[in-house]
Amino acid sequence: MFSGSFLHNIDKKGRIFIPAKMREDLGTTFVLSVPIDGERCLSVCTTEHRRQLQEKIDQLPVVKRKALNRAFGPLTVEVECDVQGRILLPPLFREYAGLADSAYIVGTNDEIEIWDKDSWEAKREQLCSESIAELVGSIDF
């Protein structure tokens, strides 16, 4: 389970530090992609989690399957951390998420998201609204 939020710099080469606990849970090789909900951030997950998602996509009718594979395939890569705990965010990925000098690494239970600092702060404000209370109210405890 991935949790917490951490603000880190993105260096001149496009690398960002992944917190140690998150790296431990991700394993040696993991997947960087755009998120399935279309948010302007990046998603990091285990290869197993990505495999399970791909299996679900592969079961869709051919037109839907091809559309999703076209949307996600070019913006999905396997990555691993360097010895300093950083991953490289390719230019196209940084452009998609609007990443420049710093970003939040955010745990979202089964994935990690990488958000532009200003975008995450705006999203966090939005998440503190009544809509979250409404969603929580729909859970049957």
Q: Helicity, in percent? A: 25-40%
How many whole angstroms does the radius of gyration measure? 16 Å
Estimated share of beta-strand residues: 25-35%
Q: Give a quick account of the main beta sheet: strands, pairing sense, barrel closure.
A: 6 strands, antiparallel
Order of helices and strands: EEHEEHHEEHEEHH
The whole-number mean of residue pLDDT values reads 93
Structural class, from secondary structure content?
alpha+beta
- Low-pLDDT stretches: none
Report the strand count: 8
Distance between the termini: 21 Å
Oligomeric status = single chain
Topology summary:
Layout: E1 5-9, E2 15-17, H1 20-26, E3 29-33, E4 42-46, H2 47-58, H3 62-72, E5 76-80, E6 86-88, H4 91-97, E7 102-107, E8 112-116, H5 117-127, H6 130-137
Structure at a glance:
The protein has 141 residues and is of the alpha+beta class. Helices cover 40% and strands 26% of the residues. The strands form two sheets. A six-stranded antiparallel β-sheet has the order 1-7-8-4-3-5. A two-stranded antiparallel sheet has the order 2-6.
